[in-house]
């Protein structure tokens, strides 16, 4: 006698694993010879390890502050240090990255793999101060094909190519479920981690952000430090009944707006006139993702991906999300600028 429940369960396929998806899509990668595929697998492996560390942080005393400041002058959390070490080890052992740039380090990290064809810029653990209160955090990464000769040591030129030169970018979100979202310049795909199998499975193919939204994400604690045009835009949002949603973890705020529509703003302030977010390993990768998903990322003066990089830990303002919302905030900013002139 047949068992309907068993037949129903077995009829549902397990899904497409990240490895299988990468293999299918390898022909889309520039210079497809397998190295970039392996590099993405190495990043996914590190993401699995960080997922484990995040889930047991309160049990093994790796939550809280580490006691040092990073190059940004920010208080390092214990998990910042752990994530930085884990990702560096994974990329060194993988052999495809010749050098790494991390938010947690002053200068280039050499992997010893001078034959590697790629460099990686990363924020190993964005929003790590939120781990103590069990709020979603994430990893952001950006990949470039090196411009210096293979076999030599990487230089700053390999990292300062500009956002349009990224061959891949993405993030890992450690939340109610762990997700890897990435692009290689051919759309955006999302993968959800299945703990019991230890695999990322394709859960969100061909992600597209809604053209418009009704959510704004910013730290309104800086209200009186924001430019007048930004305050005017936020006031308009409130008059329309839009929802204010701000988690304080960049990846989590970005992720929500990517799926539901909305705008994330980190304007210049009196304290940070050049902006707060880092260009190379926060703004660039998220800008590539949002453009590939049909949205926009602007600095207030130009597209984020068109900004010329000058130094490693460069900062910039960012307005990123649904196209109509980004256009509106920029039109108000431009009108204010013209009136001032």
From TrEMBL:
It catalyses: beta-D-fructose 1,6-bisphosphate + H2O = beta-D-fructose 6-phosphate + phosphate. Pathway: Carbohydrate biosynthesis; Calvin cycle. It is found in: Cytoplasm. Residues 17-205 form the Fructose-1-6-bisphosphatase class I N-terminal domain. Mg(2+) 1 binds at residues 103, 123, 125. Mg(2+) 2 binds at residues 123, 126, 282. It is an enzyme of class 3 (hydrolase). Its cofactor is Mg(2+). GO terms for molecular function: fructose 1,6-bisphosphate 1-phosphatase activity; magnesium ion binding. Keywords: Carbohydrate metabolism, Cytoplasm, Hydrolase, Magnesium, Metal-binding. Residues 209-332 form the Fructose-1-6-bisphosphatase class 1 C-terminal domain. Gene3D superfamilies: 3.40.190.80, Fructose-1,6-Bisphosphatase, subunit A, domain 1. GO terms for cellular component: cytosol. Homotetramer. HAMAP family: FBPase_class1. Belongs to the FBPase class 1 family. NCBIfam families: PRK09293.1-1. This is Fructose-1,6-bisphosphatase class 1. It comes from Hymenobacter jejuensis.
């Amino acid at each position: 006698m047949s068992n309907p429940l068993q037949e129903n369960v077995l009829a549902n396929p397990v899904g497409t694993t990240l490895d299988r998806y990468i293999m299918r899509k390898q022909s889309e990668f520039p210079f497809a010879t397998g190295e970039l595929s392996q590099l993405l697998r190495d990043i996914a492996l590190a993401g699995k390890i960080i997922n484990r560390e995040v889930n047991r942080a309160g049990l093994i005393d790796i939550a809280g502050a580490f006691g040092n400041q990073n190059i940004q002058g920010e208080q390092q959390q214990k998990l910042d240090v752990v994530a930085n070490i884990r990702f560096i080890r994974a990329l060194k052992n993988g052999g495809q990255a010749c050098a790494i740039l991390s938010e947690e380090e002053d200068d280039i990290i050499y992997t010893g793999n001078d034959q590697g064809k790629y460099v990686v810029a990363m924020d190993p653990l964005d929003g790590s101060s939120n781990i103590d209160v069990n709020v979603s955090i994430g990893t952001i990464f950006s990949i470039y094909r090196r411009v210096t000769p293979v076999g030599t040591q990487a230089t700053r030129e390999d990292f300062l190519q500009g956002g349009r030169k990224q061959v891949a970018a993405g993030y890992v979100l450690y939340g109610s479920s762990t997700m890897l979202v990435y692009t290689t310049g051919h759309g955006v795909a999302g993968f959800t981690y299945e703990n019991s199998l230890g695999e990322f499975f394709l859960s969100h193919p061909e992600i597209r952000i809604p053209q418009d939204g009704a959510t704004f994400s910013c730290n309104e604690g800086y209200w009186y430090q924001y430019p007048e045009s930004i305050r005017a835009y936020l006031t308009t949002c409130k008059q329309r009944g839009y929802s204010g949603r701000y988690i304080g973890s960049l990846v989590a705020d970005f992720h929500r707006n990517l799926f539901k529509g909305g705008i994330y703003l980190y304007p210049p302030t009196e304290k940070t006139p050049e902006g707060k977010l880092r260009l190379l390993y926060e703004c660039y990768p998220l800008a590539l993702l949002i453009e590939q998903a049909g949205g926009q990322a602007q600095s207030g003066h130009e597209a984020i991906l068109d900004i010329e990089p000058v130094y490693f830990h460069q900062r910039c303002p960012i307005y990123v999300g649904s196209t109509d919302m980004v256009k509106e905030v920029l039109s108000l900013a431009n009108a204010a600028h013209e009136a001032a002139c």
